[in-house]
Amino acid sequence: GAEGPTLMSYFSKNQIQALKPKITFSTLRDLQCPVLQSNDLQGKPEESCSTEELLEWLGAVLNQVSLDNKSSSFLSTYCCPEPNTVVEKAFLCTITGFIIPEKIIQLLEQLCCYFGEPKLAPWLTLTVHGFADSPVSWRENEHGFHKGGENLYNFVIFRNLDYWLQMAVGAHDDCPP
Fold first, then answer.
1. Lowest mean pLDDT segment, chosen from 32-41, 52-61, 77-86
2. Calpha distance 118→159 (Å, rounded)
3. Greatest C-alpha distance within the chain
4. Count of CB atoms within 10 A of residue 162's CB?
5. 151/174: higher pLDDT
6. What is the pTM of this model?
7. In whole angstroms, what is the distance from residue 155 CA to residue 65 CA?
8. Which of 94, 93, 153, 87 is nearest to 122 (CA)?
9. Looking at the predicted structure, is the pLDDT value of residue 158 above 90?
């Protein structure tokens, strides 16, 4: 209709361009990390942590919550699950933007290359968040925002290339496929 030429002139005038994803890097020093065993999802006392404990810890790290359980903290008294180990240096890369699945597969492949010599890390993770207010979640069904808009999955990849895949959705969403 009549709106076509008007929209076209608006877009050409404003030179709409695809936004490049924003990438940030940081190094976390002396980070307490849970001890994980690739073949033990439930964890064992004094041997390894469970998948649930890992995901909770990862949320704290990504949100820069202190892990030292200080009673004076008004934000959090969370502490790293047991057993844990202190890692002198951990590398955190955050990519924010609209990222297609093919790029996520490329990222996974590049991360797996990190396990070549020298083998520094026992495991690494890749977390992919959907936008909290995205209209669609899993299986192309409507995404129920309600409280938190949970919509994510997390790969935990081990040195032997075993991996865990964790998925999280809101209470009113369909479960992932």
1. 77-86
2. 11
3. 70
4. 12
5. 151
6. 0.75
7. 21
8. 87
9. yes
Percent of the chain with pLDDT over 90: 36
Sheet of strand 151-158, all strands in order from the earlier edge strand to the far edge: 123-129, 151-158, 163-169
3-state secondary structure the chain: CCHHHHHHHHHHHHCCCCCCCEEEEEEEEEEEEECCCCCCCCCECCCECCHHHHHHHHHHHHCCCCCECCCCCCCCCCECCCCEEEEEEEEEEEEECCCCHHHHHHHHHHHHHCCCCCCCCCEEEEEEECCCCCCECHHHCECCCCCCCCEEEEEEEECCCCEEEEEEECCCCCCCC
- The answer to whether 121 and 156 are in contact (CB under 8 A) is no
The pLDDT of 18-30, averaged and rounded, is 85
Q: Which residue has the tokens 């200080």?
A: 70
